Amino acid sequence: MAGKMFVIFGASNILWIVFAASQAFKIETSPESKVLAQIGDTVSLTCSTTGCKSPSFSWRTQIDSPLNAKVRNEGTESTLTMDPVSFENEHSYLCTATCGSSKLEKGIQVEIYSFPKDPEIHLSGPLEVGKQVTAQCLVPEVYPFDRLEIELLKGHHVMRNQDFLEDMDRKSLETKSLEVTFMPMVEDIGKALVCRAKLHIDESDFVTREREITKELQVYISPKNTVISVHPSTRLQEGDSVTTTCSSEGLPTPEIFWSKKLDDGNLQLLSGNETLTLIAMRMEDSGIYVCEGVNPVGSDRTEVELIVQAFPRDPEIEMSGLLVNEDPVTVSCTVPNVYPLDHLKIELLKGETILMSKYFLEEMDRKSLETKSLEMTFIPTTEDTGKVLVCQAELHVGEMESEPKQRQSTQTLYVNVAPKDTTILVNPSSILEEGSSVNMTCFSDGLPAPQILWSRQLDNGDLEPLSENTTLNLISTTMKDSGVYVCEGINQAGTSRKNVELIIQVAPKDIQLTAFPSKSVKEGDTVIISCTCGNVPETWIILKKKAETGDTVLKSIDGAYTIRKAQLEDAGVYECESKNEVGSQLRNLTLDVKGRDNNKDYFSPELLVLYCASSLIIPAIGMIIYFARKANMKGSYSLVEAQKSKV
Known about the structure:
By secondary structure, this protein is mainly beta. It folds into six domains: about 25-115, Immunoglobulin-like; about 120-215, Immunoglobulin-like; about 220-310, Immunoglobulins (Immunoglobulin-like), CATH 2.60.40.10; about 315-395 and about 405-410, Immunoglobulin-like, CATH 2.60.40.10; about 415-505, Immunoglobulin-like, CATH 2.60.40; about 510-645, Sandwich (Immunoglobulin-like). It contains two helices and 48 strands. The strands form twelve sheets. Strands 41, 43, 44, 46, 47 and 48 form a six-stranded mixed sheet that branches. It has a five-stranded mixed sheet with strand order 18-24-23-20-21, with no helix packed on it. A five-stranded mixed sheet has the order 33-39-38-35-36, with no helix packed on it. A hairpin with a 2-residue loop joins β12 (about 150-155) and β13. The N and C termini lie far apart (about 180 Å).
């Protein structure tokens, strides 16, 4: 009995050990057997064990293709990560776990698909009532497309659906589409197009992915029945205003654009409003005006012609020049852009007096705007100032009108008088001593009152402007202020000029008295005694030889006196006096003449000849000096009449 119990106990113990061992080492996967992975996503497969402290793992595909994934082992768990999922991952993956001599395997089927985006709806054009349009439902980047179903609905009505059951000869992403052509109706306004796509990924498990897009229908009606209304009339007079209104039917409501048709047929855009108002119309505003109704699917236009009858502007008065007393002037009276001109009359009046009248009776061979005028020449006088010149035009537009249309322009006459009788008053005098002040006042008659302009005349004849005041003041004058001063009276009719010469006198100073070559010479030498005055242009120069018996006035030329073969008696004091009306100044010079070392008689035949020649030359020189003095030569002086010398 004991042996039997032992056998039973031993057998049960073995079974327990086997059972314990089978419970100790197991393998599991997540997902368990199958996974659906979208291309581009990240998918992880997990393999884990129980009953083994340190198992080892390996992954492979059933057909031994590359894994195209990364493996991470950590303890009793191994993860295979596909990032991103691609066509190369469509396999059955096997995970092998080893613990000692035990080995376990488990597989996971990876099935891939692509259905990443919602469908797209494209229309061949805007939805216009009564015009066919094609709607396309497009499903991009689908795999596997042989399990794709697309349907297109308008509202709740299925317009078309399609299953794409063609064979797939390769693994690739495909874009599939469904097209429907239909004619929009007014009843479609507010409805929506729906594109719905279904991808039946696993028929056995009924796994379906579904995407859809909705597009609200915007239905248009092209503009039509465009009409224009005009107030007050399509025929207008110059200066009138007109309002034109335009309307057009369509969906959406058409925008209104107003244009004017140009001569070359092009359109000039005027306004984007329903109402176009033109004010103060002129003849050139005549023409064809176009209204156009526009919306996204079309346009519709109509036009109206506006006619502006011509007598557009008042006459224009023009003068050939400025009105100057007793100068002839031509006046013209012009009437622009007249039609019809064979009913035109123009009159020119001065005050109540008709100066000239003209009728234009020529035949009109064409319809066109013409400009007509009359001209006349008259001589204005100062009595005309203030009178009114009137240009009057009359146009008999139609026989039914009892009174002609009239326009006129006026111009008040203002007759100018050119400057004249320009005078200058100088106070105290035009001849002044240096340092004095002087006022020069200018007056000039004319209409309008002339403007006064003071200038100084330069050496080259040009004028240097100085002042625009009536009076020109010079204070503490110097010799540089001497010159010719010009006053001009100026107005728009002309210029009048008057000159005055201003002389600033300066007392002599800075006199220089010199002896050349020296103040000390030998008997028989030649010496020149010269007197100059540097600061005053015009002075009298008087040269004297001082003596106790009386002064001797020397006959100098340009302030210079020449002593040829000086003698002992030529030695002494020489004096120069420089003077003018303002004052005088003196300078003295002492000349020393030394005798020769030995006084020999140098008489010779040659000296005799020279003596005889000199007896003839001296009278001749005396006559030359006499005639020079009579001719007012500079630098000469006589006791009877002293002449001015400029130094």
